Amino acid sequence: MNKKAGWLLLAATIAATPSFSQVKEKVSKVDVVVNKSTMDVFVDNLIKHMTIEEKIGQLNLVTPGGAVTGSVVSGDVDNKIKRGEVGGLFGITGAEKIRKAQEIAVNNSRLKIPLIFGLDVIHGHRTIFPIPLGISCSWDMPMIEKSAQIAAKEATADGLAWVFSPMVDICRDPRWGRISEGSGEDPYLGSQIARAMVKGYQGNDLAAKNTVIACVKHYALYGAAEGGRDYNTVDMSRIQMFQDYMPPYKAAVDAGVGSVMSSFNVIDGVPATVNKWLLTDLLRKDWKFKGLVVTDYTAVNETIDHGMGNLQEVSALSLKAGVDMDMVGEGFLTTLKKSLNEGKVTVKQIEDACRRVLEAKFKLGLFEDPYRYCDPSRAGDIFNADNRAAARDFATRSAVLLKNGNNVLPLKKSGTIALVGPLADNHLNMLGTWSVSGDFVNNVSVLQGMQNVGGSNVNIIHAKGANISDDTAFAKRVNAFMNEIDIDKRSAQEMLDEAVTAAQKADVVVAVLGESANMSGESSSLSNIDLQPSQKRLLDALKKTGKPVVIVLMNGRPMTISEENAKADAILDVWFSGTEAGNAIADLLFGDRVPSGKLTASFPVNVGQIPVYYNHKNTGRPYVKGGPAKFKSNYLDIPNEPLFEFGYGLSYTTFNYSPVKLSSTSMTKTGNITASVTVTNSGNYDGEEVVQLYIRDMVGSVSRPVKELKGFQKILLKKGENKEVTFTINEEMLKFFNSDLKYVSEPGDFKVFIGPSSATTNEAGFILK
Ligand code: BGC
Asked: Fibronectin type III-like domain location, by residue (predicted)?
C-alpha cells in the first residue's frame, strides 16, 4: 500500500468530506497501519465504514445495455451508482465513456469506491482472433498466451479491467453452439489452454496498466448439457466430473485466475449458482480459490425456474453457496437486506462477498487510481498494425487441413480461380460468435485476402452461389444480433448459375461454405449440424463441372460433413478466423503458410454418433476396427470412428514417425521413464507438426479410457529434416480418480502412444511397479 492509496482510504473512512488538513493530520496515523499491512487492512478499514446497503451494493454487477444475452437490462444505473448500489459495470467500452461512469462513482457516491468494468473479451477485443475452438487447434501455448495478452492490452486501453474469459467448458457434443467458445473435448489440452489464457490476461501484476482480471467460466460442467441443448440439465458421475470436466477450471484456479463465473446448469440437481458444494467446498476449500465468484447473466434469478424458491430465497441461497457478485439480476440488491433482517443470511456472509469484490478492485490498483484504465493516450494500443499482424499469424496456425486430395492445395499464384460461396466475400461473418467489440466492416474477406496474396497473375472470379441458408424462419432466429444470414434478392437458381459459369471458366474452384457467425455460440444449439441445403446444392453443382473443388469451411463447431468430404478434393477448416481472416486463409491457400492445426474436437460421421470423443472407455464388447458387427458396442449402420478424430490435421508436407522407444519397460512411482520417437519431414515443404503423446492404463480399479492425451510438442521441421522428440513420463501422468475420488496411480501395465493424432497405433508398453 502506498501513500496515495492511504489517502484514498482516508477519504473513504472519514464520513464527512474531509478537509485537506484533516486528511494530512490523519494520514500519518493511518500510514503506520497501512504500510505495515496488506490489502486486508485496507479492505477491513473500508468495510468498517460501509453501511449494509453499501456492502450489498458492491455485490451488484449491472449492464446499462450492449451485452445482453438475457431478457433483462439494468435500469437507472447512474442513480444506483450514486447511491452506492453498484459494484461493477459491464457492456460499455471506451476510455472516455468508462471514465465518465467512474466519475459518477468517485465523485458522487458517499464512499467514492471505484467501479470495476468488465466485458466479454473472448477471442480478442477490438482485434479479433480465431474463435476459441479454432485457436485451440493451434496447440500452440505461447501463441494462445500472446493472444490473451494482446486482448488484455486492447481491453485496458479501452477502459476495461476485467474479462469474462477463458471459457474452458469441455464439450463432447457439437450440437451445443457454445462448443465454439471453448477448447474442445480434452481435459489435458483444455487445462494447458486455460493456464495460457490466464497467464496472458493477468500477466504477473494485476495492477499493471495492460493486464486484466480473467474470469474462468462457466463453472462448472456447462459443456455437458443434455442433448447439446443450451442451458439444459447436466448429470454425470463424480468420477467423470473430476476426470474429464473439472481439470481446466482447476488449472485456471491453479494459475491464479482472479475470478470464476458460475454456470447456468444444475450439478447433481443443484444449479451451479446456488451450489455450495461447488462454489465453496470444492472451489474455495479444496482448490483454495481466493478470488471473486460472479454469476452468469441473471443466473440467480434463473434458479427460480429451476425450482429453488422465490427471488429472496434464491438470492440468499446463492450468497450462502459462495457467490460474491450477482450479474444483472439484482436479486442481491433487492432482497439481501430483508434476508439479513429475517436472519436468513448473516452480516459476515455479506461482508465476505463484499470483501472479495473490494479485493479485486484493490488488486487492479483501482483504489490507487480509479482511472487507471481510462487513458485516451493509449488509443494506439487498439486495433493497430501489430495486433492485426498477430491476428493473421494466429489464424494461419489455427486452421486445420482436413483433406488434400491430389495435393490440390496449395494453389498456384496464376491461372483462374472461381471463388464462390456465401462466405467468400462476407464481412459480417468473419469474426465469429462473441466478438462484441470487433469491427464488422474493417476485416478482411476471403476475396480481399486472395486478391492481396494472390498477386496480379491470378484471375479470381467471384460469385456468391448460394445463401448461407434459404430458410427464412431459421435465418430470422439466427439473425438476432445482425443480418448475418442475408437472403439474396436473386433466386437460388440465378445464384447457382452464376457460380457454375464462374467454375467452368476456372482451373480450380474455392468454395467458402459453412455456418454464419452466430449459428454457433450462446443459445445456438442445433439438432442438425449438416451444411445448409442451399450450400449442399451449390457444392453438387460445382462438383458437376468436373473442376477440382476446395472447400474453405467456416464453422463454430464440428459439422457433419461426410458427404462434402466425399465430394470435395480438399477441405481447409478455418473456423471463424477473425479480423484478418481473408489474408490468413489466402496465405494458407497459396502456400505462403503451411497448415499445422490439429482438431481439438471430433467430427462425427452423423449426429446419431454423438457423443463421439477419443478418450472413451472400452466396454465389454469393444468395437472391432474395420466396421460394425453384431453383438459389439457399435451402430450397425456406421463405424464407431468419427469422420475426423481428435488430434487430426494434415499439412502440405508429410511426417513419418519412427516406432516409440522407451528408456525402460518398467517404472517406479518415484521414478520416471522417457518415451521418444524420431519424426521426419518426408515431404516437400517446411512444416510444423504437433507430436502427441497418449497413455492407456490397461488395468485399473475403475475402467480406464482407451487413450488419454498426456503431452504434446509442436515442432518445426524443414523438409528432409528429422528430430527426436522425447517425453518424460512420471507418476503424475498415470493418476486418475478412483471410486473414492482419490487421485491415484495404480501399478500395472500401461501403453504409450506417440503419433500425429488420437488414432495413432504407434505404441509401446511399460509396467508401473
Ligand atoms: C454468458 C456468459 C457471458 C455473460 C455476460 C451470459 O449469457 O453465458 O458467457 O459472460 O452472458 O455477457
From this structure: 689-758
> DSSP letter string over 155-206?
HHHTT--EE---B------TTSGGGGGS--S-HHHHHHHHHHHHHHHHTT-T
Atom of ligand 1 nearest to the CA of 215: 10
Q: How far apart are CA 589 and CA 570, in angstroms?
A: 11
Nearest atom within ligand 1 for CA of residue 91: 12
pLDDT of residue 622: 97
Q: How far apart are CA 184 and CA 108, in angstroms?
A: 46
Sign of the Cα torsion 476, 93, 438, 134 reads negative
Distance 165 CA to ligand 1 centre (A): 10
Probe target for ligand 1 pocket from 522, 523, 524, with the most ligand atoms within 8 Å of CB: 522
Cα–Cα nearest to 365, from 5, 98, 102, 57: 5
| Cβ(581)–Cβ(588) below 8 Å | no
Q: Which of 68, 119, 120 to mutate to test the pocket of ligand 1 (most atoms within 8 A of CB)?
A: 120
In the chain, where does the domain assigned CATH 2.60.40.10 lie? 655-768
In DSSP terms, 727 is beta-bridged to 675
Which protein residues are within 6 Å of ligand 1, measured from CB? 67, 69, 120, 164, 217, 296-297, 522
69 CA distance to ligand 1 middle (Å)? 7
Show the cell assigned to 263: 454456470
User: 655-768 belongs to which CATH class?
Assistant: mainly beta
Of 271, 226, 297, the C-alpha closest to 65 is: 297
Give me the amino acid identity at 136: S
Q: What is the set of active-site residues?
A: 296
State in Å: Cα 406 to ligand 1 middle. 44
Cis status of the peptide bond prior to 376, with omega within 30 of 0: no
Average confidence score pLDDT of the chain: 94
Query: Which protein residue has the closest C-alpha to ligand 1 atom 6?
Result: 297
Q: Which atom of ligand 1 is nearest to the CA of 261?
A: 10
Residue nearest to atom 2 of ligand 1 (CA): 296
Residue with CA nearest ligand 1 atom 5: 297
- DSSP letter for 652, please: S
pLDDT tens for residues 363-418? 999 999 999 999 999 999 999 999 999 999 999 999 999 999 999 999 999 999 99
Q: How many A from CA of 160 to the centre of ligand 1? A: 16
**What b/e sequence results for 359-382 when a residue is b if at least 16 CB atoms lie within 10 Å of its CB, and e otherwise?**
bbbbbbbbbbbbebbbbeebeebb
Write b or e for each residue in 572-594: b if 16 or more Cβ atoms lie within 10 A of its Cβ, otherwise e.
bbbbbbbbbbbbbbbbbbbbebb
Indicate if the alpha-carbon torsion angle 355, 357, 363, 366 is positive or negative. Answer: negative
CA distance 579 to 207: 29
Residue nearest to atom 8 of ligand 1 (CA): 296
Ligand 1 midpoint to CA 297 (Å):
6
Q: Which atom of ligand 1 is nearest to the CA of 217?
A: 9
Domain with CATH 3.40.50.1700 in the chain: 391-600
The answer to whether the beta carbons of residues 449 and 582 sit under 8 Å apart is yes
Q: What is the pLDDT of residue 35?
A: 45
% helix, strand, coil for the chain, step of 5: 35, 20, 45
Q: What is the pLDDT of residues 447-476, one digit of tens each?
A: 999 999 999 999 999 999 999 999 999 999
Q: Is the pLDDT of residue 21 over 80?
A: no
pTM score, whole prediction: 0.95
> What is the CA 333 to chain-centroid distance, rounded?
30
- 750 DSSP β-pair partners: 697, 766
Residue 763 burial by CB count (10 A; 0-12/13-18/19+): exposed, middle or buried?
middle
Over residues 63-110, the pLDDT tens digits come to 986 544 555 567 789 999 999 999 999 999 999 999 999 999 999 999
